Amino acid sequence: MIEDMLRTPAAVQDAERHTAHNYHPLPVVISSAEGAWVTDVDGRRYLDCLAGYSALNFGHRHPTLIAAAHAQLDRLTLTSRAFVHDQFADFCRELAALCGKDLVLPMNTGAEAVETGIKVARKWGYQVKGVPAGQANIVVAEGNFHGRTTTIVSFSTDEDARADFGPYTPGFRVVPYGDLAALAGAVDEHTVAVLLEPIQGEQGVVVPPSDYLPGVRQLCTERNVLFVADEIQSGLGRTGATFACEQEGVVPDMYLLGKALGGGIVPVSAVAADADVLGVLRPGQHGSTFGGNPLACAVATEVVRLLATGEFQRRSAELGERLHAGLRGLIGKGLVAVRGRGLWAGLDIDPALMSGRAACERLMARGVLAKDTHGSTIRLAPPLTITAEEIDHAVAQLAAVLAG
Ligand SMILES: Cc1ncc(COP(=O)(O)O)c(C=O)c1O
Q1: Residue 110 CB less than 6 A away from ligand 1
Q2: Which protein family is it in (predicted)?
């Protein structure tokens, strides 16, 4: 097809015209998708190695999830929590069981789950731990990414995410990620929670030292502090287990979940914790019009059932080995470092060679979609349904890009 007959350039311009420029998307305009593949308005196919920042762990339009959504659309979509609906109980019971916790609290976006976790931890601190009114603090890590609300960006260490959005919410202490001594030094008698990503996704898939999460668990237990694990990106199969914490033998007091919980169809997030923690909330103290709606619950219950089979976690673990072996083979050939676990990888490109953005543009031209983060880092997070051949294809395309 000759270049000026393509629909993409005009469609990209059109998409920019009436939106705030808070994203810098790759110039691809997607119109349909199935499994690990998307198709653009010009009929070109791409292997999706971002998977909606892990919101599409089960691939695009997984048949079981689409069927659940269709069936629910034909019956009931929204009630608000003012009433009970018939999809709610199964979702809460089955998600709580998957998490090994007593209770769940459904919300919509990841940021709302984080906000919920912060509110619950503070209330627990005042009502259960006995922290004096207004004195609670929460310890977080440098390089964190927990979402975009004003409270959450208040404790971001990324200037782009934070600058000019103050005044900032007080009550957070930031310590270096992976540094147990610094964490122990920041915790005091008014600390109600340590809030961490078990692997820092947006920071470039940064895996902490192996003694870190067990050490955090022990410290939190000893000091009567809640360990709140933000598994919004790392959880639900991405790393080769249901939760990234699990791989370190650690059970947090609270899981924050989102992204893949909605099956790539609807925004669904949740907080999961035992009754002594989530039980602090009473009617009127927290909520959301859309949280736990019938459509969300119908889809997310099927997501939980897919995860309960263990198949996706196994695929991620096994195929992740293949992905990481392939990527490690490119170290010294354009890559300077590869991190990650399961089907999740952060790649540092030799900055002398090209930026992460340039690498993603060249990958796109070769039919592979990925996203850069922080200069020369690329993140790969393909759907967990990707095949071994497709992984080899993605690695081969990356090798070709790096070879120039
Ligand atoms: C670890 C983590 N927490 C929270 C969020 C925020 O989720 P959402 O964009 O759905 O608000 C993200 C999003 O990337 C994330 O990676």
Answers
A1: yes
A2: Belongs to the class-III pyridoxal-phosphate-dependent aminotransferase family.
Q: Is 342 in the pocket of ligand 1 (CB under 6 A)?
A: no
Closest atom of ligand 1 to 258 CA is 10
pLDDT (tens, 9 = 90+) of the chain, 404 residues, equals 566 799 999 999 999 999 999 999 999 999 999 999 999 999 999 999 999 999 999 999 999 999 999 999 999 999 999 999 999 999 999 999 999 999 999 999 999 999 999 999 999 999 999 999 999 999 999 999 999 999 999 999 999 999 999 999 999 999 999 999 999 999 999 999 999 999 999 999 999 999 999 999 999 999 999 999 999 999 999 999 999 999 999 999 999 999 999 999 999 999 999 999 999 999 999 999 999 999 999 999 999 999 999 999 999 999 999 999 999 999 999 999 999 999 999 999 999 999 999 999 999 999 999 999 988 999 999 999 999 999 999 999 999 999 98
Any ligand 1 atom below 6 A from CB of 115: no
Decide whether 3-62+312-402 matches 76-308 in CATH topology: no
Where do the structural domains in the chain lie, given as residue ranges?
3-62+312-402, 76-308
Count the residues in the chain. Answer: 404
Distance CA 342, CA 375 (A): 23
- Is 145 an active-site residue? yes
Spatial contact of 260 and 237, defined as CB atoms under 8 Å apart = yes
Q: Which burial class, exposed, middle or buried, applies to 199 when counting CB atoms under 10 A from its CB (0-12, 13-18, 19+)?
A: buried
- Residue range 3-62+312-402 forms a domain whose CATH class is alpha beta
Dist CA 386 CA 123 (whole Å): 42
Which of 232, 239, 255, 373 has the most ligand 1 atoms within 8 A of CB, as the residue to mutate? 232
User: Which ligand 1 atom is at minimum distance from the Cα of 197?
Assistant: 1
Q: Is 114 in the pocket of ligand 1 (CB under 6 A)?
A: yes
DSSP 145-208: ---SSHHHHHT---HHHHTT--SPPP-EEEE-TT-HHHHHHH--TTEEEEEE-SSBTTTTSBPP
Q: Is 259 a catalytic residue?
A: yes
